[in-house]
Every structure is written in C-alpha cells, then in structure tokens.
Amino acid sequence: MNKIVITGATGMIGAALARNAIKNNMTILCLINKYSNRINNIPKSKLLNIEYCSIDEYNSININSKYDAFYHLAWEKTHGPSRDDTDIQIKNIQYTIDAVNLAKRIGCEKFIGIGSQAEYGIVNDNLMHDTNINPKSSYGIAKYAAGKLSGNLCSRVDLKFNWVRILSVFGQLDGLHTLIMYAINELKEGRSPELTKCEQIWDYLYCDDAARALISIGKYGKNEKVYPLGSGNKKRLSDYIEIIKNIIDPNIILKYGEKEYYPHQPMYLCADISELTKDTGWKPEITFEEGIKKIIENIDL
Q: What average pLDDT does the segment 159-170 reach?
C-alpha cells in the first residue's frame, strides 16, 4: 500500500492520517471541499496532493491517477442536534456508497470506511467486532447502514473492505466543542469548566495512534472485518479531567454536576482491541497524559 486517498483530511483524524502516511513515505491524495476553512490543517509535503471535491461530488470527479487504498472519513454533521437530522444522515449513506464507486474507478484494491461507537448504542461491556448493534441516534443508525451497504458493495465490485468504529479520539486540531478541548481552554483561562457528574467510564485514544491504526488496517486488516478502535484502556471521565487540571493548574477546584448528560449518553465506552492487535500488530503508544501535553504545547506555539 503505497498510494492512498483520504476524504475528510481537514479533520483531526484525517490530518493525523495524512501526517503519518507521509512518515511512511506514501503518496497521498486528499479530497477537500473547496470552501473548507480548515485546509491549513493538512500537512505540507511533496508526497501530498489536493483535489477540490465536495462530499456530494464523488460521482462526478475525474481522477486520472491510480491508487491502492481509499480512506473515507468525510461525513456531514457529526455533533450537536444535527446528529439526529434524518435527512442529512441519509445523505451521508449515499455519499459513502459514492466513495466506494470512486475507489473502484481509480483502481483501489481496498476501501476503509470510518464508523462510530454510536453504532453500538448503549452497551455496558467492552466493544468488539461482534457486539450487538442497537444505535439510538440518527447518526449511529446512518453510520451502521453506511458500513453494511458499503461492505456489501465492495464485495460485489471486488474491493477489499474494512469498517472502523472509532470511539473517542483526541489530539491537536480537535474541535473546540469536545470535552477535552473545552476543559483545556477553560482551565488555561483559570476557570473551572462546567461539567456533568463525569461518571462515565471512558476510553480515549490519541489521534496519531488512531492514524497508525488506520494505516495498519489498510495494510494488514482482514477482509470484511469490523474493528472497534480505541486505546483498550478505560478510566472514569472525572479522572481524565483531573489529569488535565493537574497538568495545567492543580489549584483550580473542579465542580461536577453543573450540566445534564446529553441524549443517548453511553455511560460505558471501551474498545476491545485484541482482534485489531492480533491481525495488524498495532498497539497504542501515546498515553493520555502525553497526548494532553502535546495538545497544550501546540496551543502555546
């Protein structure tokens, strides 16, 4: 696997995937919405090229070069109330199918689609490839449908296929709406962030570890296999917040329970990565504390 295509490359995980692909001396094509205000998130390299192509233009774009693998990370409306906008989420299913057809047109041998822990719904055990599926949000339902339909299409057009259900990834370029970035920014300003009770048991994975996992899946993932992707380690959410506080300012008093949990809130979220490690050899390398320090160093540049 020497040449890859990435959609959604301006996001945190997509940008990390591009960075790590460059480290692996891969040739990369990033399909970018020409109106994106995050294009500077994409690393600069002679190995990386950009084509301006919106998510609804995969059927019409003309790409002359051939590629080995297609990573589909692009998805419209991934947080907030729009996660339950049925019309938008249904469109995302079609865009995923369009991405498979594009991958086939440009000679790819493998399609790697990015799913979500939201596909599982509320589960009180470690998430595995064969954990029962019962999504609660339109976003989770659409991700599950996109994964099943794109996998079916890949088998019919002779494309190898993997679907990766990502849990909670954090790192540089993360959205300001996320708990990690919100907590970091509030604490750096000397304020206590408004928090829920933070009773959830959670699994956080640093973005560059997630990117390395995706590259490993592209190279070694077993055909048609679904992989949940997290660190495989879990802590109470309040413990993560305390780690961030102690790195920034141990003297700030945190107040829990000021906010209510959002709808469809899972209280237990941890990946079983044993199958992923067995198949690809991948393991996470960066601890939560190290990841937080990297984010803060990047903010302070």
A: 98
